[in-house]
Prior knowledge:
CATH class of the domain at 14-97 and 170-264: Alpha Beta
CATH architecture of the domain at 14-97 and 170-264: 3-Layer(aba) Sandwich
Strand order of the largest sheet: 6-7-8-3-9-10
CATH topology of the domain at 14-97 and 170-264: Rossmann fold
Strand content: 25-35%
Number of helices: 9
Helix content: 25-40%
Shape: globular
Structural class: alpha/beta
Number of strands: 12
Amino acid sequence: MMATPPAAGPSIPLEASALGFRRPGRADVLKDVSVTLHAGTVVALVGPNGSGKSTLMRLLAGGLLPDRGRILLRGRDAATMTPADRARQVAYLPQDFSSHWNLSVRELLSIGSRRGRPLSPGPAAALDDPMTRTVIERFRLEPILNRRLQSLSGGERARAACAAFLGRPAPVLLADEPTASLDIGHQLALMEWFREQNDRTACLLVLHDLNLAARFADRIVLLDRGRVAQEGTTAEIMDSPRLDILFGAPLTRVRQPWGTAVLPS
């Protein structure tokens, strides 16, 4: 099933067609999944545990190679791109961010600000470019810039990871459960950031909080057992009975100024 109507051309930040992926000795994790991300939109990827959401995100980011199908980034086949080229097109925040090195927050942000460019030896950059300063202020990182990642709380590490991910613009932003370790205030700040991105950026976010998806996403893609079960506008999906079936629980719809919220019945 197509996640959005077919589109082609370099003006589309990301098009994935008929993706399939199988782990050795196991059934298909993803089966014929197609997703098109348009600039200026926020798309929420929603589904129960084990539906293939994180696998799809890793395929789109280049961390895994699909067994079938192809991915186009601005009309170019992602399989033919160098890692640096791909990094300039796609920013990816994995579900469980970790660093092999006990970096300071300043060093992590410096690396993030140079995504897709060679990393030069020496001290971390001054972090004085406008985008980096903006994310430092948005996520209140000034007091912890010189602290090491291992000394931070889970929420502080999550804020630092989000800031590093957002510190350099990219046509495509992929974030796997970016709000999971954040408090409510920082969840809203992050989601508002995605909403504020200009019309050259496409965002795909894995979200387990249906109400965050309802409030901030333009469209929702429902993934079930490795297939796209339904895709549509946020209003369409939040009112769809398929949502109740997918999560195995009856949901009560509550109208809010920003749309439809859901509660377990």
